[in-house]
Write a structure and sequence with these properties.
With 138 residues, the chain is mainly α. The chain is built from seven helices and no strands. The protein is globular. The relative contact order is 0.17.
Length: 138
């Protein structure tokens, strides 16, 4: 892996995903985010690291679009926001993050073998909490 960082856009696949979104119209960005989350959430076998990275990045974009979240994210430029996600889409993101953290996830394995594994897991847990229902975030 060329780029490696604990933030949601710290890996090559995540950065490429975010860059690809920046060139899409807003209506297509949300579709791309949903597709990335669905692919990770529905993987029944071993989840490869690039797919896990993209799912974490997609979840971070949704978390940033939730009410009360930071108004922008460094992955997208001005005027390129992700629309506020539905509760259903936020739930899909939580499911995808759970899948990324599962024992049969390459990304989780790679982070667990690194010195920053706990920091990465805390970052993903923070995203998960930000995506939960408002009652869970209080």
């Amino acid at each position: 892996m060329g780029t490696w960082g604990t933030d949601p856009f710290g890996g090559d696949a995540a950065a490429d995903f975010a860059a690809g979104l920046a060139g899409l119209p807003e209506s297509r960005r949300l579709f791309a985010v949903r597709t990335a989350l669905t692919e990770a959430a529905e993987e029944r076998r071993y989840l490869e690291a690039p797919e896990g990275e993209v799912a974490v990045a997609a979840a971070a974009l949704l978390a940033a679009a939730r009410p009360g979240a930071a108004p922008s994210t460094p992955a997208l430029g001005p005027g390129q926001a992700i629309p506020e996600p539905s509760e259903e889409l936020a739930g899909l993101a939580v499911h995808a993050l759970d899948r990324v953290l599962a024992p049969d996830s390459e990304l989780a394995e790679l982070w667990d073998e690194s010195d920053a594994g706990q920091e990465w897991r805390a970052s993903v847990a923070g995203l998960r909490a930000a995506l939960g229902p408002a009652a869970e975030r209080v």
